[in-house]
Amino acid sequence: MAYVITDECTGCGSCEDECSVNAISEGDDKYVIDPEACTDCGDCADICPVEAIEPGVGKGK
Length: 61
Description:
By secondary structure, this protein is an alpha+beta fold. The chain has 2 helices and 4 strands.
């Protein structure tokens, strides 16, 4: 189960810097997590200042 970034994302980029497997990148209107690369560690969710990252429901959500 990969983490997902919600529409609450402010685009600060702190999650991208925190991801040890480079699964996070800047999208068109918010950051996105590659579900195939995400290891479900939760480090990005822990660092997000607006709590915009949450566990997804299965791969590819």
